[in-house]
Write a structure and sequence with these properties.
This protein has one domain: NE0471-like N-terminal domain (NE0471 N-terminal domain-like), CATH 3.30.2020.10. About 35% of the residues lie in helices and about 25% in strands. By secondary structure, it is an alpha+beta fold. It contains 4 helices and 6 strands. Strands 1-2-3 form a 3-stranded antiparallel sheet. A 3-stranded antiparallel sheet has the order 4-5-6.
């Protein structure tokens, strides 16, 4: 459950994937390919250079054209990613598995 957490770190990993971290320590990779080109506001994100031009603004991801993604949606995406990784349903890069383990330990 998202509890009004702010995004504090975002790094481009590859293609449409970013590593993001919230102020409560929740972190992981998110695949934003479903947003790239989705509607007029996200159309410019098809161009990789523009996509990589994101900033953290108001606790979430934003782009120069005004496009942004709700922080609660990003948080859900990270949680879903971590659940998939820890349940073994998804083959993930080792650092994504490590991200999930860090989150599990911090929840204990």
């Amino acid at each position: 459950m998202w509890d009004m957490n702010d995004l504090v770190e975002a790094r481009w990993v590859e293609e449409s994937t970013l590593f993001i971290r919230f102020d409560d320590g929740t972190a992981g990779r998110v695949d934003l390919s479903g947003y790239r080109g989705r509607g007029a506001i996200f159309e410019p994100l098809r161009e990789i250079g523009f996509f990589k031009g994101f900033v953290i603004e108001g606790g979430t991801l934003a782009w120069p054209n005004g496009a942004d993604i709700a922080p609660e949606r990003l948080y859900e995406m990270v949680i879903q990613q971590n659940v998939q990784v820890t349940s073994g349903r998804m083959a993930a890069p080792q650092d994504a598995v490590q991200d999930a383990r860090v989150k599990e330990r911090s929840a204990e």
